[in-house]
Amino acid sequence: MTTVPPLGPALGPPLRPPLDPALGPGRRTLRRHTRRAALTCLVVLLLSAGLAVGALASGRYATPLADLWPVLTGGGDPGLRFILFELRLPRIGTALAVGAALGAAGALFQSASRNPLGSPDIVGFTVGAATGALVVLLVLDGTPLTPAVGTALGGTAVAATTLLLGGTGQRLILVGIGLCALLTSVNAYLLTRAEVTDAQNAAVWLVGSLNGSGAHLPLLVGTLTVLLPLAVLAARGLRLIETGDDKALSLGVPVRRQRRTATALAVALTAVGVAGAGPVGFIALAAPHLARRITRVAAPLVTTSAVLGAALLLAADQLAQRLVPGQQLPVGAVTGVLGGGYLALVLAWTWRGGSR
Amino acid sequence: MSTPAAIELDSVTVGYDRRTVCRNVSLQIAEGSFTVFIGPNGCGKSTLLRTIARVLRPQAGRVTVLGRDVRGYGRRQYARTVGLLPQGIEAPAGMTVTDLVVRGRHPHRSALSRWTPQDEQAVTEALTVTGTAEFGDRVLAELSGGQRQRAWLAMLLAQDTPVLLLDEPTTYLDIAHQYEVLDLLADLHARGRTVVAVLHDLNQAARFATDLVVLHDGSVTDTGHPSTVLTPNLVADVFGLRCRIVPDPVTGTPAVFPEPTRPHPSLGPR
Ligand SMILES: Nc1ncnc2c1ncn2[C@@H]1O[C@H](COP(=O)(O)OP(=O)(O)O)[C@@H](O)[C@H]1O
Ligand SMILES: [Mg+2]
């Protein structure tokens, strides 16, 4: 009994060219994505520029825009010169650099972990950074190590440990949670052993702040110039990993290697950001999330996330300086509140509107 | 053996970490065949398919595809030869159908090359053939299960490989969509592709397969044309189900009808 399997509706001869590749659906989709991402970047960059000018002109001593120009071009009042070049500009620059680093790091993390809520916290970075700062402030007090270096080292060490022990996927998250719990109690112990003033000082470091920052700006910018292009390259591979490990492997993507590279870059970027301003929360989570919502492109948008992260942190820092008159809040407090609110909104939305 | 083997497994042992799932499996899949893997849940069908796709590395043994050891292929080169639709694949958030299908071209594009007319051709054809062109700009998560499955198939077609591996491509689809997918696979097979699929429905397997591969506890227990392989004894041995087999009234292929089961003793008489 041999039977020929029934054929479905005849497909007809394969479609033949002439098919202008510019008009096909593939090309159109690709071009639309590039346009949306570029347009978003442009708009956000313009917004950041506006914000930066506003930030330069305002502060404890308001500066009329007309007075800014002579100072920026090399002349002007020496007092104003000092305020602009030594105080305001470095702070704005640091906010932008740290925001960009955290935004890009978040984009890589979310994509590499295939988790829209993925962030450096998954691998225990923030808690490790806090431990680093506490150890420097409370234990190694008097050594040349600064809390900034402590946070970066602590965060990186914990992230590296988590990644080495946890690999990827479910186990990574569990190892991350375990290490976080462990270090949280270490942190609490360290704080109970500290003098009150030291503990207060440390508390600001645990939230993340741009007060008095700016000394490391050239180093920050230099590191970012190397890391950001690498992050953009790493994101190209992640684009396929988002369709699932098996699918990506079957498309010829070296999944493990690319995920490892992307995660390492994300950790490095986070370390840069944390060294600049302490463990500022939610930028790494919110920037890539917003980038996807605004552009409606399903891909790790490193550039867009970096630009958005920069704008968000600058805006948050301006808010932090103004929110309570006569007092400078740490910027981490503002991003925490805004980011928390955003996260709650998004979650509520997602559950109400189904999967999206 | 008249046709050469597209895929050849030579004493392949494969599993996860220290756990071996398939032991010492040798198997030949003919070029141009429509081969269907059947077997109970957890018997190693997916494991074997993933091994052929080079997603899993065998602990021992050798896999040969189109006459060449799979370890001898480059990554992209292999991805231009063998395509896989994994089981239970999840839609990435926010991705549209065309987005997905465009990604299927990955192995044909080098890192810096531009989108070529061939890429566009393959994508357009994949969208047309699977009937997904009309909702190409919709987000995957918003589609019905059948539409989504066709989108994944379109992605697989855009990859344009001579060998297609599909792990339960009809699961979760209603009966009309199941046959739609199977008809599409039959068409691709008729156009010369080697199709290897895991199917759960034995009657569908018998209708569409040129060759059945029966898996049980990680070993191949039987291979051959459905009319010779599918017997009441085999179904009893492999699935533990007593059944009768009659010719399918439409195609004449074997069709499986289970015998009535006895009620569970604890339920008492019916
Ligand atoms: N990623 C994995 N890690 C460990 N064990 C697995 C994994 N995937 C499958 N298995 C085990 O391997 C066996 C065979 O699984 P699988 O090949 O998926 O079966 P099938 O596809 O035939 O239902 C099962 O016992 C399953 O529990
Ligand atoms: Mg399976």
Mean pLDDT of chain B: 92
Instruction: Note the run of SSEs of chain A as H and E.
Output: HHHHHHHHHHHHH
Total strand count of chain B, please? 12
Distance between the termini of chain B: 52 Å
Q: Say how many strands of chain A there are.
A: 0
What is the domain tally of chain A? 1
The amount of beta strand of chain A, in percent, is under 5%
CATH class of chain A: Mainly Alpha
State the helicity of chain A in percent bands: over 70%
Order of helices and strands of chain B: EEEHEEHEHHHEHEHEEHHEE
CATH fold group of chain A: ABC transporter involved in vitamin B12 uptake, BtuC
Separate helix tally of chain A = 13
Most extensive interface, chain pair and sizes: A-B, 47 and 75 residues
Going by CATH, the architecture of the largest domain in chain B would be 3-Layer(aba) Sandwich
Largest sheet of chain B: 6 strands, mixed
Radius of gyration of chain B: 20 Å
- Strand-residue fraction of chain B? 25-35%
Bound molecules: adenosine-5'-diphosphate, magnesium ion
Computed CA radius of gyration of chain A, to the nearest angstrom? 24 Å
The CATH architecture of chain A is Orthogonal Bundle
Protein name (chain B): ABC transporter ATP-binding protein
Subcellular location (chain B): Cell membrane
Keywords (chain B): ATP-binding, Cell membrane, Ion transport, Iron, Iron transport, Membrane, Nucleotide-binding, Transport
Domain ABC transporter (chain B): 7-242
Structural description of this entry:
The complex is a heterodimer of chains A (about 350) and B (about 270). Chain A contains 13 helices and no strands. Chain A is mainly α. Chain A has a single domain (about 25-350), classed as ABC transporter involved in vitamin B12 uptake, BtuC, CATH 1.10.3470.10. Chain A starts with about 25 loop residues before the first helix and ends with a helix. Helices cover about 30% and strands about 25% of the residues of chain B. The mean pLDDT of chain B is about 90. In chain B, strands 6-7-8-3-9-10 form a six-stranded mixed sheet, sandwiched between helices. In chain B, strands 2-1-4-5 form a four-stranded antiparallel sheet, with helices on one face. Chain B has a two-stranded antiparallel sheet with strand order 11-12. The N and C termini of chain B lie far apart (about 50 Å). Chain B has helices spanning about 45-50, 75-80, 95-105, 115-130, 145-160, 175-190, 200-210, 225-230, 230-240, and strands spanning about 5-15, 20-30, 35-40, 60-65, 70, 80-85, 165, 195-200, 210-215, 220-225, 245, 255-260. Chain B is an alpha/beta fold. Chain B is built from nine helices and twelve strands. Chains A and B meet through α1, α8 and α9 of A and α2, β6, α3, α4 and α6 of B. The complex binds adenosine-5'-diphosphate and magnesium ion.
